[in-house]
Please model this.
Amino acid sequence: MKITDLLKVDGIKVGATAANQMDAIDQLVDLQVASGNINDRDKYKEGILAREAEFSTAVGDGIAIPHAKVAAVKQPGLAAMTVPGGVNWNAPDGEPADLMFMIAAPEGEANTHLEMLAKLSALLMHADFANALRRAHDAQEFLQIIDEAEAHRDLEQAQKQAAQVQARAAAADDAWPKILAITACPTGIAHTYMAAENLEKKAAEMGIQLKAETQGSAGAKNVLTAEEIAHAQGIIIAADKNVDRARFAGKQVYSTNVSAGINDPERLINIILNNEAPVQEGTVVDTSSAAADGDSLGHTIYKHLMNGVSHMLPFVVGGGILIAVAFLIDGFLAPDAGADFGVATPAAHFFKQVGGDAFGFMLPILAGYIAMSIADRPGLAVGFVGGTLANAGYNWGWLAGGSAVGGGFLGALFAGFAAGYFTKWLEKACDALPDSLEGIKPVLLYPLLGILGIGVLMFTVNPLFAGINTGMTNFLNGLGTSNLVLLGAIVGGMMSIDMGGPFNKAAYVFGTAMLAEGTDAGKVIMASVMVGGMVPPLVIALSTTFFKNKWSEDDKKAGLVNYIMGLSFISEGAIPFAAADPIHVIPSCIAGSAVAGALSALFGCTSPAPHGGFWVIPIIGNPVMYAVALLVGSVVGMLILSFWKKSVAE
Model:
C-alpha cells in the first residue's frame, strides 16, 4: 500500500480559503465525504473535534494533522488542503496552519493503513517536502510530489538498513545507535511518528546515530533490541502515556512529552550527550525530568490517579449496571422480597452475583494500577494486595471481636500510592545487593518484601481509614435535606466543567465511592452525579432544536445525536460544541447540571447503579421526580445558552 492509495484527487483542495479553524475542519470533512471514506459526517466531525479538545493537532511549521479513529469511518483515508492565507490552529510555535492533512481511521479494522500514515507523518517533518506540497498547482501535482517523496524515502530506508547490517557484521562499535528513543501519543496516529522522525533527523544533522521505537496504534515498530540498549549512551522517552522502562535499567533515561520530541529534539539529544539525564533504576516516575518539562507534582499525582481510575471504571460500570439489572428484574417479579430483594429470583441472583463480583474488583484494580503507574510492573502485585486489604480488611480477631476492619475507597487510594512509592524505595535499597542476585529481584525480592510491607502498612492504617469512612458515612447520613441539596448541586455542576476531564472524573469517582458504601446518602449522591452528567448533551440537543437561529446546519444535525448521548449519560457528546464555543457552552451546562443535581437531591432520588443514565430509570428511587430534575436542569441550561449565545447571522 502507498500513501496515495489513501489520498484521492477528490480528497485534495489546493489554494483554498478558510475563515478559521472550524471552517477548515468542515472543508476537510467534506473532502473525506467526497472520497467515500465516511459513513456518518456528523459523528466523524464529532470525533475530530473531540480530539482537538484534548490538545491541538497542529505540530508547528504551518502543519496540522487533525485525525479521528471512530466507527463513522467506512474505510481508511486521507484528505488534504493547502490554505495560503493560513488559519490559527493553536500551534505550539504560534504560527498559522497552511498545510493540513485529515486522517480517517476506522475502528476495529486492520492497522496496515497506519504504516502509511506513519510514513506521511515522517515525511511532513522535512521542510522541502512540505514546501513542495504548498507550491503544488493542482491535486495531480500534489499526489505526484507525495509519490516521489515516498519512493525516495523507501530507497533511503532500505540502504540505511543494509549499511547497518554490514557494519554490525563487522562488529564496529560505532555501528550501534548512540542514542535510543521511544515516542508515543494517546492515539498513536500522527504525533508518535512525527516525534520519531524529528529526533532521527536532528540526530543525523548533529552527526549522531539515533534509533526511535514508535508505540503507535499499529503496535510497537522499530523495536529497540537488548544489544542496542546495551550499546546506547542513553534513552529519550517522548510520550504522553506510560512506557515500560524496566528494560533500560542502568542507562540514563530522560522522560518528556511527545510535543518536545517534535519541537525541541536538539535539547533532548544534548541532555543525553551531556549525561544530564538520571540513571534508570527500574522506576517509572522521574520527577526531575517531569518538572523540567512543566509536569508539576500535582499533575504527576493526577496522572497516577487517573491510571488507576481508567482501569477501574470498566469494572464499576459493567458490574454496577448488572447489579442494577438484578434490582430491575426483582422490581417486576419479586417487589415484596424484602431483604432478599435483588437475589430473590434466579435471574436476579445471576446478575447480582456476576455484577457483584465485577464490582468487587474496583478497589484492588484502582490501587494496583496506581502503583503500576508509579513503579511499573514490580508495583502491580503490591498495589493489588494493598487494594484487596483495603477492600476486605483484616480480621483483627482478639482486638476487634473477629470483625474485619477495612479502609474502603480512601484506604485503597492510600494503598495504591503507598505500594508504588514503597516499591520504588525497595528497588533502590536492593541496588546495594550483589550483582549475582540481580535475576531474583523482580521474581522474588520485590514481590515478597513488597507484599509483606504493604500488608504490615495496611494492617496499621486500615482502622484509621475505616474510622474516616465511618465518620464520613455518618456525616452524610446525618445531613439535612438542604445540605444534601448543596452537595448535589456541587457534584452535578462538576460533571459539566470539563466533561470527561479531571473535575468530571473527580465527581464521578466520589459518587461511585459513596455508592460503594451502600448507604442511602451515597445513592442520593450517585443520582445527582449521574443526572448532572446527562445534562450537557441535552442542553445542546434542546438548544439546537428550539433555537435553530443560534446554530449552523451542521450543528443542528449533530445536536440530534446528543439526545441519545445525554440520556445514555455520555457527557462527552457536548465536547465538540464546548470546544467551538467554551465561553457560552460550558457555564450554561454547569448551571443546568448544578440545578439538576440539586433538584435530584431535594426530591430524594437515589441510584443504585453508577451508570446507565435514563435507561436505568426503573430502578431509580423516585423516578418521576428524577425525570423532572433532568428536564428542569436541561431546560435551564438550554435557556441560558440560547439567550446568551449570538445568532448565526450575528
Observations:
- The chain has a mean pLDDT of 81.
- The chain has four domains: 3-152, 176-295, 298-463, 479-644.
